[in-house]
Design a protein that fits this description.
161 residues, alpha/beta, Glutaredoxin, 6 strands, 21% strand, globular
């Protein structure tokens, strides 16, 4: 996926921690952090997930008018039989994930789900940063430092919509 190009829509089969579907179009005007993960991915559980929660706490907790939206994307490309939405709901509760989490829509063509394919993600964890205009500004496979993530988000916040 080319940085600076329009961020593809999230292709979602279900939302958890939200009573309605959320689209990137409706988040236009905000900086959007998408935390793509699998609940059986060690780096997701031990590093990227807790980091996403910290970023949510920093930018969004208790701020309905926040300039940043943090959302999760459970993008399952292996062990499909055990990573069900019901198991994900338990995971979100046990790990106290407070932000909305989308379930990436399965593909009819193979194990790679649709949003993961649209963004050409290499695996999980992957972080997507989408600017106020809906352009993909950063896509990172792995875990960066909190300081780098805050710096990247703060730069995008200061840019006009």
């Amino acid at each position: 996926m080319n940085r600076g190009s329009a961020a593809p829509a999230l292709r979602v089969s279900q939302w958890l921690n939200s009573n309605r579907a959320i689209t990137l179009d409706e988040l236009r005007g905000k900086v959007v952090l998408v935390h793509a993960f699998q609940m059986l991915c060690p780096a997701c559980v031990m590093q990227a997930g807790p980091q996403a929660v910290r970023l949510w706490q920093r930018y969004q907790q208790g701020r309905p008018d926040s300039e940043v939206a943090v959302i999760g994307l459970h993008t399952v490309f292996e062990h499909h039989e055990v990573m069900t939405p019901a198991a994900l709901a338990v995971y979100l509760h046990e790990f106290r994930i407070p932000f909305p989490v989308a379930v990436d829509r399965a593909s009819a063509d193979g194990p790679i789900p649709q949003t993961m394919h649209a963004y050409a993600m290499q695996g999980t964890p992957t972080t997507l940063l989408i600017d106020r205009a809906g352009l993909l500004r950063k896509q990172f496979f792995g875990v960066e430092s909190d300081q780098q993530m805050v710096a990247d988000i703060d730069i995008l916040i200061t840019e006009p919509a």
